[in-house]
Amino acid sequence: MAERRSGSISSRKQPQQARSTELVAAILEAAVQVLAKEGAQRFTTARVADKAGVSVGSLYQYFPNKAAILFRLQSDEWRQTSEMLRDILEDRRDPPPQRLRRLVHAFIQSECDEAEVRGALDDAAPLYRDAPEARAARKAMDGTMAAFLREAAPRSSDAARARAAELISRTIAALGKDFSSRPRTAAEITAYADAVGDMLCAYLKTLRRG
């Protein structure tokens, strides 16, 4: 069956009843499985519908095309990452260096746990990379990191903190993606996260001197 063409990447409608919510959940779970097995290039609405045990017509009630499904999966991933970032970096029970270490460990563990799906979503990124929702998600995460660095390094200049926010975020993302490109043991994950945490905390210590 040919893939339906549409410029929209938003969900067609939101489920209002329990049965509809369960149907959408089944579609998204099937989408994760298809994406992990087939990759972004072979990801189609027909394969997702077949895996979910629903008709393509039922799927189209909620998602107009495959880009909308992929975007929903990516949006959920952005939301989870943003919440993790906020929960850890805004937890003032720990000093800033300890929070940064916790973030590194949590992010790298998450990357390893979901490596197949995240890799496939990266491949599909051109479908939604410039969407308003994508820019909003990046802005929210950037804001959380900026607030953390204002607290952690109050004597540094705005320019220095902005540079640090970009460096820390990009470093964690790039290293996590590269490290999770093949299966890792729990010991390897811990050792690697410790090393990355040491490096970034040393940088944070320098930044805090102003």
From TrEMBL:
Q: Does the keyword Glycoprotein apply?
A: no
**Keywords annotated in UniProt:** DNA-binding
What range(s) does the HTH tetR-type domain occupy? 21-81
| MF term (GO), any | DNA-binding transcription factor activity
- Quote the DNA-binding region ranges, renumbered to this chain: 44-63
Which ranges does the record mark as transmembrane? Answer: none
Q: Give the signal sequence positions.
A: none
PANTHER family cross-referenced by the UniProt entry: HTH-TYPE TRANSCRIPTIONAL REGULATOR RUTR, TRANSCRIPTIONAL REGULATORY PROTEIN
Q: What is this protein called?
A: Regulatory protein TetR
Report the source organism: Rhodopseudomonas palustris (strain DX-1)
